[in-house]
Amino acid sequence: MGVPLVDLTGWFDGTGRAEVAARVDAALRESGFLLVTGHGVPDELRHRTRELTRRFFALSTEDKQAYAVRTGGRGWLPPDVQATGRSGGAMAPPDLKETLTFGSDDPAGGDPFFFRPNVFPSQVPELEPAVTEYLARMRALADELLTIFAVALGEPGDLFTRHTRLPSYNMNVNHYPPLSHIGPAGPGQFRIGEHTDFGTVTILDRQHGVGGLQVRTAGGVWEDAPFDPAAFTINIGDLMARWVSDRWRSTPHRVLPPDASAPDEDLVSLILFYNTDTDARIVSLDGRYPEVGGGDYLKAKLEAISIG
């Protein structure tokens, strides 16, 4: 299968838009995943946002507890509140992670489940401007990717973005603590269990590690995802696969548990899950799937992975 790398420079400067769209189409058909460079997001912003969230994760549990929320909230998701491997209906143990989550906060979005005020820890005052800038960059990049997707299909460029005028989205900053801190994984336990994503497109800024991202091939083989420090890892979710009538793969993936060969490995990933307007009505391109509401579809998926 392979996870290809696509340079978006030709798309943004106009010198190779058709070529970029064709390469993205091929990647999504074969893998469902790709790496992208030439995305225009400054490395300094990526590094600053990650390091500021690390300051939060380094706080005591007591300090972090003041920001504790459940799935869908804005704040700190403690360990043991999510089991992502349950998204497909199977039983799975909790993920070996903690998460600081932000997202869409414009009350004009209508649905208070998806549009809530973001909460920024007072102990890290520099985090708010960094996250605000990062979210703006991620939303712009997500819409650009959706435009590339539309062109890849030979459709009008706003095929998808006409449904993202006021979209819901979540940015999860996942902290994967080291083995030396949390001890060995339990049976069948992962940093994040096997799952597919739920929405339209995911933009992942990850760190390389032994206990890192794996992607399942169409033949059912788990492969380590390639890594490029300059690249974002991109994949589509179930709603997009449904939308394009399975032309593209919503690919199962997981994050391995901490490994005994790297007991001090401590990783932080920044993940933007991009969705649609909550009142959008999504119809698959060839009509094979019944119409669904963007918000209703996502809410059901999120409820499936929440513990308690």
Set down the secondary structure blueprint.
Blueprint lengths: L4 E3 L1 H4 L4 H14 L2 E5 L5 H15 L3 H5 L9 E3 L20 E6 L23 H26 L14 E10 L2 H4 L9 E4 L5 E5 L7 E4 L5 E3 L7 E5 L1 H6 L9 E3 L11 E11 L3 E2 L9 E2 H12 L3
Parallel strand pairs: 1-2
Antiparallel strand pairs: 2-10, 3-4, 4-5, 5-12, 6-11, 7-10, 7-12, 8-9, 8-11, 13-14
Helix pairs in contact: 2-5, 3-5
What is the residue-averaged pLDDT?
95
- Roughly what fraction of the amino acids lie in strands? 15-25%
Number of helices: 8
User: At the third CATH level, what is the topology name?
Assistant: Jelly Rolls
Distance between the termini: 37 Å
Structural class comes to alpha+beta
Using only CA atoms, what is the Rg?
A: 18 Å
Query: What is the string of SSEs from the N terminus onward?
Result: EHHEHHEEHEHEEEEEHEEEEH
CATH class: Mainly Beta
Task: Give a quick set of tags describing it.
alpha+beta, single chain, 8-stranded mixed sheet, Jelly Rolls, 8 helices, 308 residues
